[in-house]
Write a structure and sequence with these properties.
The protein is an alpha+beta fold. Helices cover about 45% and strands about 10% of the residues. The strands form 2 sheets. It has a two-stranded antiparallel ribbon. The longest helix is centred in the first third of the chain and has 19 residues, at about 15-35. The N and C termini lie far apart (about 45 Å).
């Protein structure tokens, strides 16, 4: 790391790259508010602060005929609440799943949760641990 980056990190209390992204988000949100465009594309409610502000593609760029062009197409970009964007991006689909890929039911007793609220199957975890133990023996 360059000495100037080290100094900037010390002054800002965070990595210079992270601080720059934070500043860009704050600037963009400010301009979106000034243009009265801070209405969520998904729920049509006001986006009140930068913490809940998210850029979103109206149409999936990943499944487009030309993903690169779709990703950078400004007419395909809109704004939403972070929670609305995450929900639309697949969280809802995963939350609706009742069984793990191996067919075990997601119940309170059979489900571990990560800090980010992702879940995984206890039965599968136990089976993996038993298989590792059997291999090691």
């Amino acid at each position: 790391m360059r000495p100037s980056d080290i100094r900037a990190t010390e002054l800002l209390g965070q990595n210079l790259g992270n601080a720059s992204v934070k500043l860009y988000r704050q600037m963009l949100f400010h301009f979106v508010q000034q243009a009265a465009q801070n209405t969520c594309y998904r729920c049509d409610e006001a986006i009140e602060n930068v913490e809940e502000f998210s850029l979103e593609h109206k149409e999936s760029w990943q499944s487009a005929a030309d993903p690169t062009a779709s990703y950078f197409d400004l007419y395909n970009i809109t704004f939403s609440h972070l929670r609305c964007n995450a929900y639309a991006g697949g969280a809802a689909k995963n939350a609706a799943k009742t069984h793990c890929p191996q067919g075990h039911e997601y119940t309170v007793e059979n489900t571990y949760r990560y800090r980010n609220n992702w879940r995984y199957c206890r039965t599968c975890k136990l089976e993996r641990e038993r298989a590792k133990t059997a291999i090691a023996a």
